Amino acid sequence: MKAQRELSRKQPGSNNRARARREVARVHARITDRRRDHLHQVSTGLVRENQTVVIEDLQVRGMLANHSLACALGDASWSQFRTMLEYEAAWCGREVIVIDRGFPSSKTCPACGRLTAKKPLHVRTWACAGCNTTHVRDVNAAKNIKVAGLVASACGAGVRPQRETSRTGQSARKQEPSTARPKENPGLQDEE
Question: Which residues are in the Probable transposase IS891/IS1136/IS1341 domain (predicted)?
Fold first, then answer.
């Protein structure tokens, strides 16, 4: 980045270096704000459009060890995205299902269910030996994660959990006046 290069050329302890350091901090703050805004828009859109969102529990720290992917993964802010997604879902009364990281999502054929051997990351497409279906790795993983999420929501908690009450104890929904009439007690009927 240009501001970072200019900072490295300034004399340590000078006013120009302090000014350049503030400029670098301002640029980094702007990048952080843009990233946070984008993640907020994506998480809000996903939660508003879907009743249930299924994600995979990724081990981001282990993925960052791959130096060719580390920069892109660091910019993606996966943990911040997950936090925002869970917060938005709780606020809107939606459900977020997290699939275990050990689930073989990219190695399982969604057509026949056959499990294949571990593949290196550069293999983007593969054909199932059981049913001869060709799969794109990421699309296949998304299909398998969706199916696992549907199974988890059918076997686990309700698909539509109720929204929690606010701090005041009042329900967050608008309360309509009740039109139901109380039941009459048959033992207290008027006799004429």
Answer: 2-64
